[in-house]
Amino acid sequence: MTDEKATEITPSTSTDTEKTKTGEKTETGEKIDTGEKNETGEKTEADKKIETDDKTEAGVKTETGEKPETGEKTKTDEKIETDEKTEAGEKPEKTTPQNSSTTACDKRFQQDPIFQKHLPKGLCSVLKCWLSNDTIDTDQKEIFRSSTEFLLQSTKTDPDAKEWINQETELIDLTDKCLQNIASDGHHLGTDDSKDPNLQLFDCLIQAFQHAQCKQLADSLIKCITSHYYIDAVRSLNDPIATSLNTTQEFLLVTCPKYIVLCDKTKSYSSKISNEILNQFNEALTELLPHVEKWTAPVMFCLVYPLKFILPQIRSSSYERRKPLYDIVLNLNLHLPDSDPTNEEARNKLIYVLLCVLIEIVRSDRKLSNQLKNETEEKADLVKILVSLSKIENGNGNNEQINLKAVELISLLVPEDELLKENSTEKVTALFIKNFNAAVRSGNADKADAALKGFKDLIQNDDVKEEVMKQDALPSIIKFAKESIDDPLPLEVVYSMAFNKDGNKVIREDKEFVDHVKELLDAEIQEVAKIAHDSKKSEESEKKEDSKKSEESEKKEDSKKSEESEEKEEPNKKEEAKKSVESEKTEMPQKPEKVAIQTRQYLNIPEASMWSNQHVLEFLIDKKLDPLIPICESMDGEALIEFHESCKTMPDIRDILLKGSNEQQAVPLGTLFNFISKLNKSLPPKPGRKVYFQYRYVSPPASPTETVGTNAENIS
Asked: In which residue ranges is the amino acid composition biased (Basic and acidic residues) (predicted)?
């Protein structure tokens, strides 16, 4: 790698890791061999002058300007960090000039001497030769180097450069053919960088196309990632554990997957890759697992991307495909090496994606979720690690995403009380709201959705609802729900807040949101329409309730005034008036009113089976299980126990409750689980099951080869 490549392929986006010359250490403490000469040897003074002039005209710092070879990140660090910034919502530069300064920059790009001398014909000529002969001469190497480095630097910030490279069909076609050669028979790849040093320059060209979001190369890049060369590169990280990456590893494990992650907005590319490599990747990871405690930063960085490809496909995968991944991810969460200055950034990125994968598995697969909850030893160790990762008071901006995911996973494994014991409700709520608002401000709807997804289960807790109101977070969630027409998640979170008195008031007073809900009643997406129906029914129910209370209040007031007036008249008239009022009250038909029972007499009843329907209502209200009141208000204790057993053992009953119907609103999953767990505590422990063995006399065997045994069919 040349000095210029070390400078130009790694833009200074932060100060985590420094790019150094050969022998110097990065902040991770690892040596990175950047080389000090290009492939043609030392540059002549004329060459240096031309390059200095070129860089000056292109708006790039020269080698004599600010230190280009220090204070910069390694190539791997820069790629991962650019990926994280894009996923965090930082928008790529548009390809249309926006102002006069941009226009001036556009002119500089095509007027640059390198552009005019080598682009596109010179570079295309070199690629044709490299494609057919595998080798290029000294002059061609210099054209290859100067052209690709110029394009890489220009496409970082120059919209005109991005537009130009996206329209160069011959250059795109030749680059695509080179990628196909690499994918099909491993052209230019090898464990020894000296096999084809020009692969580094081709890597620069791919990065330039990636800056321009050129999707024409995506299919060939997918072929590179799904080839056996990619899996071989993953395996090559092991035995001995890699402390740095060679050019082939850099190209296959970082450049290619990063390109796909940043271009794959719909996750369609990830789906293709995941379907192809999941089994082989699991096998390669299994080989790496015995040495997990020795993993270095480069190893951890390289494993982030394949896990990102797999993540969106977990929900649609089968149990057979999820199970091996579950075993590996759980093992990694339990045994990753401790953090230190050499691996902290890479370790944090890997931990974050591992938590995301495990959360998705637990949410998607009931069997594996129950397995984790029942494996007491592993669960205890995992929860202990998660509690440490969730400590908000010790967190900082870089680790907040890990805090959030740790809290989310704990909430899926332990009761709310145990979760909120480690971090206060106020801090947990504030962290979720902070990240949600930051994602909304940056325009990243996916990240805002991710924050709400982790918050959805917690918001069923009444204390969390109160914190949402205290922190004035509901208006921003409502605003996001109004803007997310086809997304049921924010609507579901707002609907949960309708069970909070103050939250309900805020929702009902937002006329724009109420109208938005009405528009969604006929939404094509069934889940959106269902939640809209539930919200509408809740609103109508509240209006009826308010109207009913208002009528009753007026009647009481009128009755009181009438009584006061009658007291001033003759006693007999007073009595007649009272009787008339009482008779009127008795005869007037009353709509059934939702009972608000404040007593807790049910606690004095020794067994739930002895509860009356009034005790059942007391229990539901006391345990904040309001969504179940319409279903259970007519049940006595015995009926409630039968209903409880059905919820635990009959999936079809659970599905009906969770989906709801036109007559009955859906019951939130958190409420259903709370009901099952709370009532369990009010039921006597089940006696141990008695097993009876019944034996039948069997005649002695007729021959030595026969055996005497029990009849399995008689065992009960």
From this structure: 16-94, 532-563, 570-593
Tokens of 267: 């996750």
479 token code pair: 């605003």
Closest by Cα among 127, 120, 149 to 55: 149
Query: Could you tell me the pLDDT band of residue 542, with boundaries at 50, 70 and 90?
Result: low
Contact of 294 with 241, CB cutoff 8 Å: yes
- Residue 684: cis peptide before it, omega within 30 degrees of 0: no
Q: Give the C-alpha separation, 358 to 312, whole Å.
A: 12
Asked if 479 and 651 touch (Cβ cutoff 8 Å), the reply is: no
CB 494 within 8 A of CB 474: yes
Q: Residue 40 pLDDT more than 80?
A: no
Residues 69, 19 contacting (CB under 8 angstroms): yes
Distance CA 427, CA 434 (A): 10
DSSP state of 66: S
Cα separation, 696 vs 709, whole angstroms: 9
The predicted structure's pLDDT at residue 618: 86
- Do the Cβ atoms of 237 and 187 come closer than 8 Å? no
Give this prediction's pTM.
Answer: 0.61
List alpha helices for 112-137, DSSP H: 113-118, 121-133
CA distance 25 to 16: 13
ω into 240 cis (within 30 of 0): yes
Alpha helix stretches (DSSP H) within 365-460? 366-374, 376-389, 400-413, 416-422, 425-441, 445-456
Among positive and negative, which fits the CA dihedral 389, 393, 397, 403? Answer: positive
pLDDT, one tens digit per residue, over 657-712 is 887 776 678 888 778 888 888 888 777 765 544 444 444 555 555 554 444 444 44
CA dihedral 136, 139, 143, 144 (to 10 degrees): 20
Return the number of other C-beta atoms located less than 10 Å from residue 404's C-beta: 26
The tens digit of pLDDT for each residue in 176-224 reads 999 999 999 988 887 665 567 789 999 999 999 999 999 999 999 999 9
Of 289, 304, 296, nearest to 352 by C-alpha is 304
Distance CA(233)–CA(250), nearest Å, equals 9
Task: Decide: helix, strand or coil at residue 244.
Answer: coil
pLDDT at 322: 93
DSSP letters for 437-484: HHHHHTT-HHHHHHHHHHHHTGGGSHHHHHHHHHTT-HHHHHHHHHH-
Would you call 640 exposed, middle or buried from its count of C-beta atoms within 10 A (0-12, 13-18, 19+)?
Answer: buried
The mean predicted confidence, pLDDT, of the chain is 75
Residue 361 CA: distances (Å) to CA of 38, 164, 221, 409: 48, 43, 28, 11
Q: Are 347 and 339 in contact (CB under 8 A)?
A: yes
Cα–Cα dist 131/224, whole Å: 16
Q: What is the CA 651 to chain-centroid distance, rounded? A: 27
* Cross-strand partners of 25: 31
**DSSP class of residue 44?**
P
pLDDT tens, position by position, 347-369: 999 999 999 999 999 989 989 99
35 versus 320: the higher-pLDDT residue is: 320
Residue 138 CB coordination number (10 Å): 9
Percent of the chain with pLDDT over 70: 67
The contacts of residue 715 (CB under 8 Å, 6+ apart) are 693, 694
Residue 488 and residue 527 in contact, taking contact as beta carbons nearer than 8 Å:
yes
Please state the separation of Cα 380 from the chain's center in Å. 24
Token representation of residue 266: 């719909």
What sign has the CA pseudo-torsion 329, 331, 333, 338?
negative
